[in-house]
Specification:
heterodimer; A: mainly alpha; 3-stranded antiparallel sheet; 7 helices; 8 strands; 9% strand; B: alpha/beta; Rossmann fold; 48% helix
C-alpha cells in the first residue's frame, strides 16, 4: 500500500504474524518489567522481545486480545451454550464464561501491561468476524455461536478500555445484517473459512491509519503520561530497577 | 419444591442451595434457574444410570427455612440472602435425624434406580467454625462422631451399603496428622493419593471392555468432542500455513 502511495507518508505501518493463537494461553514470554522476553520457540522466530529492541514503534497493534475461537471450541465440544433455552445444549453462566475469557487472555493482558509500562501505546485490532460457513457452525447453533463471539469481545473491550487500549473494530461494511463476515472478504483459498483476504486487510489498515492520524503516538501528553506510569512502576518494583535487571542480564549471559 | 428460589447478593443472585458454586453471582434469576434446571437434570440422569453412589457425609450443622424445612448448606446472609431469625432456624442434626434423612434418601434413590448401591465415607476435614457455641474442636469431634455412627448403622442395616474408611486413614492418631495441609484442615494431595490407592486396591476399576459398553449418549458426546477437536486442529493448521506463507513473502 505504501509503494502504491495508498498510505499517508507520515504513517509507517509494519505487519507481523507472531504465530499460532493456540500458544497465547500459555506463558510465552518472561515478564521483565517493561519488556516481554519471548520464550515460545515459534513466537521467538518473529520477535525476541516486545516491544522490539531493534526498532521503536510508537504504537503496537495486537489482534490477539479479540479472538474468541479457542474458548468457543472448548464449549462447543462440550455442547455448552451461553444463552438459555437452546435444546440439547447445557447453559453456562455469564460469570463463568467471563472467567474463561480472562483465563484465555491472561498472558495477553500481562503483555499489554508490559507494553504500557514500556511507553508503547497499544492498539487492539479486531480479527475478522465469523464467516457463515465457518466449521464451528456445523456443530453449534449460529445464534449462540455469534453470541459467544460477541460476548467474548465485549468482555475484552471492557478489559482493554481499563488498560487504555483503543479498539479498531471490524467496520459494519464488512458484515451482513446478522454479524457474519461478507463472503467477498473470504480468503483466496476456498478451503480456508477462518482467515480473510487482502481486501479486508486493506480496510483494517485504513482504519488504523485514520486513527493514528488523529492521535499521534508521540504526542507530548502521551509520552509524559507513560513516563510517569513507568517511573511509578519501577519505584514499586525495586527488584526490576535498572541495576537489578542489569545483574539479571549479566547472569543470563554468563549462565 | 423449596420456597426460596434465589438469594440476592450484590447486584445479582445466587442459588440458596449452592451459593458459592459460581465465581460471581448470576445476573438474573432467569439465568440462575436455567443453570439449576440443567444441573438438576444431570443429577436426575446420574441417579437413573449410576451403579454406585458415593456419598461423603460432611456436616451436621444446618440452617433450615422455618416455612418449609428446606436445608441450606451455608447460613443465610453469609454467601447471599439475608439472615432473619424469624425465617431461619439453626439445627445440629443428631444421629437419629441423620439416619432418618438417609433412610428416606436411600428409599427415594432406589425408587428411581432399584439396583443402586451406596458407598459411604465421612469427611476428614474439620469444621472451620461452628454455630453451636462450643469450641470448634469440640464441635468437630461431636459432628464427626454423629456422622460416623450413622454411617456405621447404615452399613449394618443394608447389604447394598458399603463404608470406606477414608476418614480413619487420614485422621487416625498413628498417621500423626501427616496427611493434612499446613492449615491442619485441608487434606494434602499426598493424603488424597494415599486414600485413592487404598480405595482402588480394594475396588478394581472397570476394564476397558466394560467402559467400551457405555451408553450411546456418552459415546455420541465423545464422537462430537472428537469432531470439534479435529475442526480446531484443522484451523490451527491453516494458521501454520499462513505463518509459513508470511515468511516466504518476506523480502530478503
Amino acid at each position: 500500500m505504501r509503494k502504491r502511495g495508498e498510505l499517508d507518508p507520515d504513517v509507517t505501518i509494519a505487519l507481523k504474524r507472531i504465530g499460532g493463537g493456540h500458544i497465547l494461553p500459555t506463558p510465552f514470554f518472561v515478564n521483565e518489567g517493561d519488556v516481554a522476553r519471548i520464550t515460545d520457540p515459534e513466537y521467538v522466530l518473529t520477535f525476541r522481545q516486545l516491544p522490539p529492541k531493534a526498532r521503536r514503534f510508537g504504537t503496537i497493534g495486537l489482534s490477539m486480545p479479540l479472538w474468541p475461537l479457542r474458548v468457543m471450541y472448548k464449549l462447543v465440544g462440550e455442547k455448552i451454550c451461553i444463552g438459555t433455552g437452546t435444546p440439547g445444549l447445557r447453559p453456562m453462566s455469564h460469570a463463568l464464561f467471563k472467567r474463561m475469557v480472562l483465563e484465555d487472555q491472561r498472558y495477553v493482558i500481562e503483555l499489554i501491561e508490559i507494553l504500557n509500562r514500556s511507553g508503547t501505546r497499544v492498539l487492539a485490532v479486531a480479527p475478522p468476524a465469523l464467516f457463515r460457513d465457518h466449521p464451528i457452525l456445523s456443530f453449534h447453533p449460529a445464534h449462540d455461536a455469534l453470541r459467544m463471539f460477541s460476548t467474548y469481545q465485549e468482555i475484552m473491550f471492557g478489559v482493554l478500555e481499563r488498560h487504555g487500549v483503543h479498539v479498531i473494530k471490524v467496520p459494519g461494511e464488512c458484515l451482513d445484517a446478522e454479524g457474519f463476515m461478507l463472503q467477498k472478504f473470504r480468503h483466496p483459498d476456498p478451503e480456508d473459512t477462518h482467515h480473510a483476504n487482502a481486501a479486508f486487510g486493506k480496510i483494517m489498515i485504513r482504519e488504523i491509519e485514520s486513527w493514528l492520524q488523529t492521535r499521534p503516538a508521540e504526542s507530548e501528553e502521551w509520552i509524559r503520561q507513560h513516563d510517569e506510569k513507568r517511573a511509578a512502576y519501577l519505584r514499586q518494583q525495586q527488584p526490576l530497577s535498572y541495576p537489578g535487571r542489569l545483574m539479571r542480564r549479566i547472569k543470563r549471559v554468563l549462565g | 419444591m423449596p420456597q426460596e428460589r434465589a438469594w440476592a447478593k450484590g447486584e445479582g443472585v445466587v442459588d440458596p442451595f449452592c451459593p458459592t458454586i459460581e465465581p460471581v453471582p448470576f445476573s438474573t434469576v432467569c439465568e440462575l434457574e436455567a443453570q439449576r434446571d440443567d444441573h438438576l437434570e444431570c443429577v436426575a440422569q446420574m441417579f437413573r444410570t449410576a451403579e454406585v453412589f458415593v456419598f461423603t457425609l460432611g456436616l451436621t450443622e444446618a440452617w433450615m427455612a422455618r416455612s418449609d424445612g428446606a436445608n441450606f448448606p451455608l447460613c443465610p446472609g453469609t454467601a447471599g440472602g439475608t439472615y432473619d431469625a424469624q425465617n431461619y432456624i439453626f439445627e445440629n442434626l443428631t444421629v437419629s435425624a441423620v439416619l432418618a434423612d438417609m433412610h428416606e434418601f436411600i428409599g427415594l434413590a432406589r425408587g428411581v434406580n432399584p439396583e443402586l448401591k451406596f458407598l459411604l465415607t465421612v469427611s476428614p476435614v474439620p469444621l472451620a467454625a461452628t454455630a453451636t457455641g462450643q469450641q470448634v474442636a469440640v464441635a468437630t469431634a461431636h459432628s464427626k462422631a454423629v456422622l460416623r455412627a450413622a454411617a456405621g448403622e447404615l452399613y449394618d442395616t443394608y447389604d447394598f451399603v458399603d463404608y470406606f474408611p477414608s476418614f480413619e486413614i487420614i485422621t487416625s492418631p498413628f498417621m500423626q496428622g501427616s496427611f493434612f495441609e499446613a492449615d491442619w484442615r485441608g487434606v494434602s494431595g499426598q493424603g488424597v493419593a494415599h486414600v485413592m490407592r487404598q480405595f482402588f486396591a480394594q475396588h478394581v476399576p472397570p476394564s476397558g471392555a466394560l467402559l467400551a459398553g457405555r451408553p450411546d449418549e456418552a459415546a455420541e458426546q465423545t464422537r462430537h468432542a472428537s469432531s470439534v477437536s479435529a475442526a480446531e486442529k484443522a484451523e490451527d493448521l491453516r494458521c501454520d500455513e499462513e505463518l509459513l506463507g508470511s515468511f516466504a513473502d518476506e523480502e530478503p
